[in-house]
Amino acid sequence: MSDDAEIVPGMPVGEMPVAWTLLVVGCAAGALATGEFSRVTLRAAAPLLLAGGLLALAAVRAIGRGTRLVTRGPYRFIRHPYLAGILLMLVGAIVAMRSLPALVLFIPATRITLMRARREDHNLALRFGDAYEAYWRRVPFMLPLRPPLGADTIAAIDAMREPPPPPPDAGPPAGPAAREV
Prior knowledge:
Layout: H1 16-34, H2 39-63, H3 81-97, H4 100-128, H5 130-138, H6 151-161, H7 176-179
C-alpha cells in the first residue's frame, strides 16, 4: 500500500472515472437498445431527464476551474450535485424506455457512483481541512434533506479557507540580532 494520504482502499481513484463512465454509458445504452418508449413514459421521464441535466450543468458551472471549495449554486443544497444529476438522468432514461436490462445496470452504476462520491469527500477533506469538515457537517450527501447554506454559514466556511491575517506590526522581530546592543 502506498504512503499517499489520498489513496483509499479499494479501486484506485484514477480508475474510478473509467469504470463509472462505462457503467453510466452502459446503463443509458441498455435503455436505448432494449427498451421501447411511449408518450406516457416519455412524459413521466421528461421531468427527471430535465432536472438531472440542469442539476449536472449547474454543478459544472458552479465549480468553474475547481481550485477552491465551492459552496454556491447547487453545492449549497447537496455535496455531490453532478453525480446526483447523472443518477437522476439515468432514472429518467430507464423510465422513458421501460428497460429491465438498464434497470439491472443501474444498481452497480449507483453503487460505484456512491463510492466515487465518498472518495471525493475523503479527498476534499484532505485538501480543504476544517473548511470542508464544516461544509460536510452542514450539507447533505446527495438528497437535499436540510435547508440550503445561508450567507452567514458560507461566509464562516470561506473564512476558514483564508489564511489568518498577519499580526499587527509590533516593530522589529526579537531575534538574536535585536538583543545585541
